[in-house]
Amino acid sequence: MADYDAQAGRPTPAEPELSRAQLAADDVDLHVGLSGVAGIVAGGRGVVDVLHDIAQFAAQAIPGVDGAGVTMAGSSAGTLQIQAWAVTADFVHEIDTVQYHELHEGPCITCMQSRRPIVSGSLGSDHRWPRFGGRVARLGVHSALSLPLMVADEVIGAINTYSHDRDAFAEHAVRLATQFAGPAAVSVCNARLLADARDRTSRLQQALVSRNVIDQAIGIIRARTGVSADEAFDRLTKISQAENTKLRVVAERLVEEAVRRARARQRS
Questions:
Q1: Contact 194, 173 (CB under 8 A)
Q2: How confident is the model at residue 250, as a pLDDT?
Q3: Is the residue at 212 inside a domain?
Q4: What dihedral do alpha carbons 240, 243, 244, 248 form, nearest 10°?
Q5: For 15, which DSSP code?
């Protein structure tokens, strides 16, 4: 039996009477989705592109899905923070915008907080999200299946699937979705690690460039005034504070001015 949190007061959806051929087809779709996730290599692609690929594979691997999304999240002071997400359909983007930015409630947020899969077969009457459910039902979306993405006991995001039909996700769908969620979590984690590494590299490069420009500006001040390096840096700092301008910007301006003067002397 699949382990998930169902909608209270609503009968568990009956398992569909699937033929052997349909079960085999579902297994093939799951295998294709898992193979696709396993083959994702971020390379030079952005996080959202990777999340979009995973969402596409989720829509293929999980039966009954009309639209899917994958969300990457982090935590700050014990609070989940949505960092990025990608979807396979416009209506999913509208749903998740409402969930994350307007109402701050919904199956994705709940599954990440509870660390358990969440199923709703009639969003409009689901008391877990009184504002979200009615809003989404008016869009003609009635079923949701959300699963937390976890790596080493850390919630790093969620898979969110939606259907226009009521009671679209029975245990069969939950089982397949759970099998898909594990490898998907690894891919999301890798995408986040790569993005963090790129961000750190970019900040380091900016810091090195800033340091180089500041050193050049210090050298120019010393050449003009004969003061020490510490005194030259102190003058830069005072200008920065007086103008309420970043030290790097003050240094860049000084260096550019010195270059213009040097070129003007060469032309004269």
A1: no
A2: 83
A3: yes
A4: -40
A5: P
Domain hosting residue 236, numbered range: 199-267
Angle at 123 between CA 117 and CA 124, to 5 degrees: 160
> pLDDT at residue 267 above 70?
yes
Question: In the predicted model, is pLDDT for residue 1 greater than 60?
Answer: no
**What tokens does 214 get?**
């500041």
pLDDT of residue 10: 84
Sheet holding 154-163, edge to edge: 79-87, 67-76, 154-163, 143-151, 118-120
Tokens standing for residue 141: 């979306």
Considering only CA atoms, which of 201, 232, 203, 231 is closest in space to residue 216? 232
* Residue 34: other Cβ atoms inside 10 A: 17
Q: Do the beta carbons of residue 110 and residue 146 sit within 8 Å?
A: yes
Rounded to 5°, the CA angle 55-143-180 comes to 35
Residues 248 and 207: beta-carbon distance below 8 Å: no
**Residue 78 is part of a domain; what is its CATH number?**
3.30.450.40
- Give 86's strand partners: 70
Model confidence pLDDT, tens digit, residues 229-251? 888 888 888 888 888 888 888 88
> Which residue bears the tokens 């109402």?
103
**188: number of Cβ within 10 Å:** 28
Token reading at 248:
């790097």
Give the residue carrying structure tokens 């639209």.
67
Q: For 165-189, how does the pLDDT look when each residue is reduced to its tens digit (9 = 90+)? A: 999 999 999 999 999 999 999 888 8
Full DSSP string of 109-125: HHHHHHTS-EEES-GGG
Residues 249 and 216 in one domain: yes
Predicted pLDDT at 43? 60
